[in-house]
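During the no-cost extension, the postdoctoral fellow (Dr. R.K.) reprocessed legacy sequence entries with the updated structure-token encoder. One reprocessed record is reproduced below for audit purposes.
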Amino acid sequence: MPRGAAAVATSWPGRTLLTLVVAWVGARACVALGTPLPWMIGPLLVTAALSMAGAPLMAPRPLRNAGQWVIGTTLGLYFTAEVLAAVSRLWWGIALGVAWALLLGQMAYRLQWRLNGHLPGVDRASAFFASAIGGASEMAVMAERRGARLDLVAAAHSMRILIVVVSVPFGLQWLGVHGLDPHVPGPRSLHLPGLLLLTALTLVGVNLLRRLDWPNPFVLGSLAVSAGLTAAGVELSAMPRVLVDFGQLFIGMALGTTFRPGFLHTAPRWLATTAAGTVLMILASAAMALLLSRAMGLPAATLVLATAPGGIAEMSLTARVLELGVPVVTAFQAVRYVAVLVLTPLLFEREARRHAGAQ
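Re-encoded structure tokens follow.
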């Protein structure tokens, strides 16, 4: 490679451009193949594979933030007053979803510790925060504060998200589940001045949560403002399809570039346990969804996404694409996200005290 071309390829603009190109190619390939969530799964798979192969890919944080803002704003448009009233009556099911996520995380932690606790460098904090069903970056920060191995925690969450984001949409598509959600977004037409105002207002919400040091402000801040406006009957504009597609692409490439060339060589037993545990989580959550479906009178597929051990953006996007109860899935995932972030440190302190007392 000529020296000038090599310099461009290793500079951050060159790496970002390369990542955008390969992510777009991956998305178009998945569109042609008819896969679910092609604009997220395609970029995720191709950037993950190339990153592990050593390609100089890069997903700058502003692009990831932009993708999360688009998705949060889009999801909020589903929360009309009628839908919000219906979802609020499901509070007990959402509370059960939170309890289930915490229980599942505890079970995964005990499995991880039982199988890998004897390995050099594996401590309880690493096993605990690697197993919690919460945001990967937030769990990594909590783990680092407690002296855990950041590489093990990050690797576990990357593996779990990859498996969930790929397997759950494909599984639902294979079962032929689609179009069970009668809800549609409040605003259905594009209105440029309204879109600009919606953008400004949602960014105010994002910045407010950033100042309050809330986690994931680009999803939760934009979602809160967009949902509040829609519930109040203020319909400014629909979200353009191209922005939604590229929002998914940005999230997919951000997830994919978390993988590194040495990923598969980092504690293979740890990754194998994480993969097996994730599959068990998915199956157990599907069984839980069937029970909740009977109790709540909602489609089982909707509750599979609502209780799946994935992220709020990824599972809610799947619900939107497959038309599977977007408001219900978003409400379950959003409440669970916040509850897990608040309660996980408390549960770890209790576990640490219990172990110290036993010793």
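The chain has a mean pLDDT of 86. The two ends are 60 Å apart (CA to CA). The remaining legacy entries will be reprocessed before the final report is submitted.
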